[in-house]
Design a protein that fits this description.
By secondary structure, this protein is α+β, with helices and mostly antiparallel strands. The protein contains 3 helices and 2 strands; from the N terminus they run αβαβα.
Length: 116
């Protein structure tokens, strides 16, 4: 009987890589659609929420023509800014850490099977 091309550690590594990639893409797309209400499950995706006070008339002044006069009352408007970051080194640790563990267990298993 011939040996398989890939051992079990390689199979587990491929499955882990695909699962992590799919989870990352699904998480990123859900945060892209609704960044405020979605909960972040993956530790290498960070979200920063910042509240900024702006002038309410700033948007009106940008769209106003030369003949328009801004209204005399100056109001303040609360604006929410959301920034989503991706931590690459932490992703690589989550990507390669389990792969190294799979291969270490595979080597240990082969050594134990060879020794008995």
């Amino acid at each position: 009987m011939t040996q398989p091309v890939f051992n079990r550690a390689t199979h587990f590594s491929i499955v882990w890589a695909m699962v992590l990639a799919i989870l990352t893409l699904v998480e990123w797309n859900s945060l892209d659609r609704d960044p405020m209400t979605e909960q972040i499950f993956l530790p290498f995706i960070d979200r920063e929420i910042e509240l900024v006070m702006t002038d309410a008339n700033t948007a009106n002044e940008l769209g106003a023509t030369a003949g328009d006069l801004p209204s005399p009352s100056v109001g303040r408007k609360l604006q929410t800014q959301v920034r989503i970051d991706f931590n690459g080194p932490l992703f690589l640790a989550y990507f390669f850490g389990p792969i190294m563990i799979f291969h270490a267990f595979s080597l240990l298993w082969r050594q134990l099977a060879r020794g008995t």
